[in-house]
Amino acid sequence: MEKTRQWSISGLGPQDLRIREAIVSAPGVDEILVRTEAASLNYRDKLVMETGMGLPLAFPFVPVSDMAGIVEEVGVSVTRFRPGDRVISTFMPGRLDGKGIGDARNPPYRTLGGFHPGVLSELVTFPADWFVAAPKTLDAAGGSTLPCAGLTAWMALVESGHLKAGDKVLIQGTGGVALFAVQIARAHGADIYVTSSSEEKLQRVRELGAEHLLPRKGWADRLLELTDGYGADHVLDIAGGSGFAEALKAVAVGGRVSLIGVFDGLELAGSAPDLLLKAPVVQGVSVGHRRALEDLVRAVDTIGLKPVIDKRYQFEEAGEAFAHLDRGPFGKIVIEF
Questions:
Q1: Same domain? 65 vs 214
Q2: Do 143 and 7 reside in the same domain of the chain?
Q3: pLDDT digits (tens, 9 = 90+) for 45-99
Q4: R_g of the chain, CA atoms, integer Å
Q5: Following DSSP, what letter does each residue of 254-307 receive, concatenated?
Q6: Which of 244, 268, 284 is a domain's end point?
Q7: How far apart are alpha carbons 26 and 73 in whole angstroms?
Q8: Distance between CA atoms of 35 and 23, rounded to whole angstroms?
Q9: If pLDDT is split at 50, 70 and 90, which confidence band does 18 have?
Q10: Is residue 153 part of a domain?
Q11: More exposed terminus of the chain, fewer Cβ within 10 Å: N or C?
């Protein structure tokens, strides 16, 4: 039986994160064995290691949800892939299209690097349906950034948001989802507004096509000034918490607010009159389904989108990569194998 090196924890807490050896399962009839080339980090990977996020983690637990790799072996009934194919993972295995798998009591959150084992492993064996073909125009590091951050921005603006040229798009921050949103909005001819507390990051995001740069504090009032009171057709709220009131204040009549992150708290606050009188669509975006990821891959290859990678680390440097994630990167952090 083949062995692999993988980063794992034996109990909750990142202090136990280290390289361990594990046995790799041969692919079953509908599975594929993939050699990982790159994995990208999301902030929720850190939260899962630290708190478990209420998920039934199986220890030793391998973290991280997003990867790109090369198919080594396929099960006898697999027809979607062949050895040598380049693939990327899907964030929510089994969600092929439509709404998530779950119900009101148990909302859908069966993800890689959480309910399922993660991908910070040199070799992984998963069902073939858990993967899509990698983009042809990106290397493995770039491809690994699409399954969560890229797809979240795509779902908010395109799949659900029906973004069109001329729409005004307000994006909070300069993390992975935010910078994907900037590039997707620019490709669609939208008018882009970005908020950040860092002047340096605002100047860097200007180079990606953001026309209007706003301070983090008081951004809603500034947006309304710049748009002569119109507001934003799309607001991508990365913070949540009490700041959700700013999103409702800034959204245009009949616009859309996409809640993507909860850095400022799990309990939302906002003005009922803003919600009632402007009648915006308010949606939570929890990544997306496999079909939308395939759409995103085609779009990436068509428009030449290049994910913003702040820094690439080697496999042995996973600890340093997570420390960088803690400091707040500009774009994505990637671990290359």
A1: no
A2: yes
A3: 999 999 998 888 999 999 999 999 999 999 999 999 999 999 999 999 989 998 8
A4: 20
A5: EEEEEE---TT-SS----HHHHHHH--EEEE-----HHHHHHHHHHHHHHT---
A6: 284
A7: 8
A8: 14
A9: very high
A10: no
A11: N
Cα–Cα separations (whole angstroms), residue 223 to 85, 137, 205, 216: 46, 35, 17, 11
Tell me the CB-side half-sphere exposure of residue 52, using CA atoms within 13 A. Answer: 10
- For strand 86-89 and strand 66-74, is the pairing parallel, antiparallel, or unpaired? antiparallel
**Count: domains in the chain:** 2
SS3 242: helix
Residue 137 has pLDDT above 90, yes or no: yes
Whole-number Å distance between alpha carbons of 248 and 224: 12
The reply to whether 154 falls in a domain is no
pTM confidence score: 0.95
Per the structure block, which two tokens stand in for 232?
């934003």
User: Count of H helices and E strands in the chain?
Assistant: 10, 15
- Strands 31-41 and 66-74: what pairing? antiparallel
Distance CA 187, CA 181 (A): 10
Q: Are residues 124 and 194 both part of a single domain? A: no
In angstroms, rounded to a whole number, what is the distance separating the alpha carbons of residues 55 and 111? 10
Find the helix or strand (DSSP H, E) in which 322 lies.
Answer: helix 318-327
DSSP of 125-185: EEEGGGEEEPPTTS-HHHHTTIIIIIHHHHIIIIITT---TT-EEEEE-SBHHHHHHHHHH
Amino acid, single-letter form, for residue 262: V
Task: Please name the amino acid found at residue 321.
Answer: A
254 and 269 together in one domain: yes
Give me 1's structure tokens. 């039986």
- Identity of residue 175: G
